[in-house]
Design brief:
The chain has 170 residues and is of the alpha+beta class. The protein contains one helix and eight strands, in the order αββββββββ. It has an eight-stranded antiparallel beta barrel. The longest helix has 26 residues.
Length: 170
């Protein structure tokens, strides 16, 4: 009976140790094993319309997933606008919170530089809300997004749509 009482603290200590190790492994957010299919890096083309300037646009983008921030994507892009008097351009770097690798609603913020016929480039703040839709099994994604850009204290709305294809996964 005395041996039983002496072993209780040890049994309790071992149980607590096993429980804490199990909980720590369950909470560890980084899986050290390689994932079979990561989020793809994508490249794409897009067309759009600037509703404030009544100007069509064409451009491209690159979608770079951020590995340790699941669901976040860095998206550099460039667009050319032509209103008939000459071509203007806007380059952007946006951070999007994605709805997942297969598609869905996404939103984000970004920073841009615009050339609109002025002597110096304007800096811009972008707000983006969009929808990505998968097209078939090849990984191609169609998207449509609304972009609100603040240029020289004026908000400009642009509607953009395009296609992205996967380059590789990591």
């Amino acid at each position: 009976m005395n041996t039983m009482n002496n072993s209780r603290p040890w049994v309790l200590a071992v149980c607590l140790l096993v429980l804490s190790v199990t909980m720590a492994q369950a909470e560890w957010p980084y899986n050290e094993r390689s994932r079979g299919r990561g989020t793809p890096v994508e490249i794409g083309v897009r067309v759009g319309h600037d509703y404030d300037g009544d100007t069509p646009s064409a451009g491209g983008q690159l979608r770079l997933p951020i590995p340790r921030l699941r669901g976040f994507v860095l998206v550099p892009s460039v667009d050319i606008y032509n209103d008939g008097t000459g071509a203007d351009w806007q380059a952007n770097v946006d951070l999007l919170m994605s709805g997942g690798p297969r598609g869905g609603i996404y939103a984000g913020l970004g920073y841009g530089w615009a050339e609109e016929g002025l002597e110096e480039r304007e800096r811009a703040i972008n707000q983006i809300l969009g929808l990505r839709i998968p097209l078939g099994d090849g990984g191609t994604r169609a998207y449509i997004e609304g972009r609100w850009t603040e240029l020289a204290r004026d908000n400009v709305f642009r509607l953009v749509g395009g296609l992205n294809i996967p380059l590789f996964r990591y």
